[in-house]
Amino acid sequence: MKFGVISLGCDKNRVDSEKMIARLVAAGHTVVSDEEEAQVVIINTCAFTDAAKSEAIDEILDAISRKKSDGKIIVTGCLPQRYIETLEEEFPEVDAFFGVADYDELVPAMEKIAAGDKIFCRGGADDYYGERVLTTPYHYAYLKIAEGCDNHCTYCAIPSIRGKYRSESMEHLLAEAKKLSDDGVKELILVAQDVTRYGVDFDGKPHLTELVRELEKLDFEWIRLLYLEPEMVTDELIEFVRTEPKVCKYMDVPLQHVDDGVLKRMNRHTTEKYTRELVAKIKAAGITMRTSFISGFPGETKEAHRKLADFIREAEIDFAGIFAYSREEGTPADRMRRHLDEAERERRADELRAIEQGVIERKCAEQIGKVVKVIYDGIDYDRQSFYGRTERQSPEIDSVVYFTSPDEVRIGEFYDVEIISADGIDFIGRTI
């Protein structure tokens, strides 16, 4: 059968989608990019926030509106894992629902739904599957090194959706990475809900640096680390990132807030003092830092908000995603008192975004005149320009380098680019 996949949410979900596609292709089905061609439309969903749930529901409704008389729809991932009973009632037009660990059931399901069966499956336990069909450009790929989370932040539903933290075996990860390297991937991006705790479930100790040292033996140019929990970012890990030749000088460390009272209610395992010291250490090591902050958490006072605003202004973190608190049913934060109304949460978030925008623009302007190593990602036809990234920019979430070249350039190759100006948070340059 011909099938198409719509993958929503994070890069961890993207890896699930890539392995889902590989399973189906190996079974003889054909993946297509045009929804009109597809006999089966598969929507891999996210349910992390209200916005993510709304996006998923909109995609389901759109697929239903386009459904052919003989077409089929499969919904997978976090949304059915969390709300399968409700979805069965609200979307009878959907032919199958699968949770986050039911992808092994997809291949036999294709024949069953073709015969008119309805399938509702949640709570499976997939075996490890190492094959991928990349949906990123072929020069970079994500490697999901663990599943689930044990941190139990009070605002987060991930532990209830994805379960306890489970590291993938190093043997499996190295074999999967070897295939990616052999296929020409230049940049490997390690992801998990918490990358820093990789291997803790093996023997009580983290094994992230051990894994990365083995990955460095493969033919990657860059290895990037995302989602490093702040309490697990030790001096040793900072030094490791600073000195390892293939590791990008870039750390994604979600801080979420800086006020002690808010951090405690979030069940974050840090304090303002620790946070300020950690940021100072990362900056002193010359490492670019990305973080995220939640604005308008229940009980966040005006003073706590001002403290966070001042911190963003003073710390000058390279990149920060600012998110208005999203109330998630079933989480401890949902049961807390003193919830702020949505308008105030968004107003505070907008204020913080404006501050961070100024920080990024100032830091961007400081790079004018410098020569940087850029991996060429693609062409922006509206700008009539190539674009790419330095090791200090992660794909799809950070700024980019727009550049021109008098010579031929090839996607996935590296070029020295002189930064000649800035356009907001993005760089403008030319190859030298």
* Shape designation: globular
Please report which band the strand proportion falls in: under 5%, 5-15%, 15-25%, 25-35%, 35-45% or over 45%. Answer: 15-25%
- Count of DSSP strands: 19
- Strand order, main sheet: write it out: 2-1-3-4-5-6
Specify Rg, calculated over alpha carbons.
22 Å
Give the class from helix and strand content and strand pairing.
alpha/beta
Q: Could you report the average pLDDT, rounded to the nearest whole number? A: 93
Distance between the termini: 49 Å
| Count of individual helical segments | 13
What helical percentage do the residues reach?
25-40%
Query: Largest sheet, described in full?
Result: 6 strands, parallel
Unreliable residue stretches? none
Your description of this structure?
The radius of gyration is 22 Å and the shape is globular. The strands form four sheets. A six-stranded parallel β-sheet has the order 2-1-3-4-5-6, sandwiched between helices. Strands 7-10-11-12-13-14 form a six-stranded parallel β-sheet. Strands 15-16-17-19-18 form a five-stranded mixed β-barrel. Helix content is 35%, strand content 23%. The chain is built from 13 helices and 19 strands. By secondary structure, the protein is α/β, with parallel strands linked by helices. Strand 1, helix 1 and strand 2 form a beta-alpha-beta unit. The longest helix is centred in the C-terminal third of the chain and has 24 residues.
